[in-house]
Structure formats: structure tokens, C-alpha cells
Amino acid sequence: MGRVADAALAAGAHVTGVIPESLMQREAGHRGLTELHVVKTMHDRKRLMADRADAFVALPGGIGTFEELFEVWSWQHLGYHDRPIGLLDVAGYFAPMQAMLEGAVGAGFVTRAQMGMINVCADPESLLDMMAAKAARADAPDDFRRI
């Protein structure tokens, strides 16, 4: 995430970081961000990020990425938010997960409508266009913006 933050900062973007105290102590957080919020717990981190997010985009990552992706996806399914969700599928990273989820559809555990909540694309620009178009169709809040 540090490289993404550095690239965004270099491009002139406003970059906000949210990190729990325990990780801040271990990783020393990115101190060059526009804003850095140090919160008590991971739950506080996710709550603050979700409250401030216009959309959710997962890049290739590990268990934390998967956990946060599935949480915002289930929140959307439950009606807690209507903001777009995207997967930036760099080099087919998410293809095995998509195959697993298609298996869940076939087994009746995930619906086609639930699968449709996730936008997947390998090109960042196209992914953001897909998400913006879906947000517009869903009568999303006017504050959705491409970052």
C-alpha cells in the first residue's frame, strides 16, 4: 500500500491512511500522507475507512485484503451501503477466486445478483469507468468521484 500511496502523492492526490496503533508501532506507518489516522483497533480502522469511502477497490493482496473485500461485499448485500466495489485483476490474480465464487454460484450459495455487485477488470481506468457507470445506474450519491 505504501507504493500505491507514494504514486498517488506523486500524482498530486490527497492520500488518507488509517492504521491501528498496534500496526503503527510495528510498521511505523507512512508519515508522508496528506492525512494519517491512528486508531485503536482494526475494527475502528475498517469503520473509518468505510465511512469515508466513495467506493471500494481491492488490489492483489493477502488475507487482510480478502477479509475487507468480503466484508464490504456482504455489507452491500445486506443494504448497509450502495457504493461500488471493484477488483483490479492485475495479471489474473483474482481469477482463481472468481472460479471459486462461480463454484459457489453453481452450488447455490452465491447468487448471480451477488456476483454482479463486484466489478472486475485488469485495467484501472476501465475498472473506475465500470464502477462509475454502475454507481450512476444505481442512483448512487453524487459524491462518488474517480480518484
Outline of the structure:
The protein is of the alpha/beta class and 147 residues long. It has helices spanning 2-10, 21-27, 42-52, 63-77, 95-106, 112-115, 124-137; strands at 16-20, 35-39, 56-58, 85-88, 118-121.
What this model shows, in words?
The protein is of the alpha/beta class and 147 residues long. Helices cover 49% and strands 14% of the residues. The strands form 2 sheets. A 3-stranded parallel beta sheet has the order 3-4-5, sandwiched between helices. The relative contact order is 0.12.
Structural category: alpha/beta
Binned, the helix content reads: 40-55%
CATH architecture of the largest domain: 3-Layer(aba) Sandwich
The N- and C-terminal alpha carbons lie at a distance of 16 Å
- What is the CATH class designation of the largest domain? Alpha Beta
Shape: globular
Total count of strands: 5
Radius of gyration in whole Å, from Cα?
A: 16 Å
- CATH fold description of the largest domain: Rossmann fold
Low-confidence stretches: 140-147
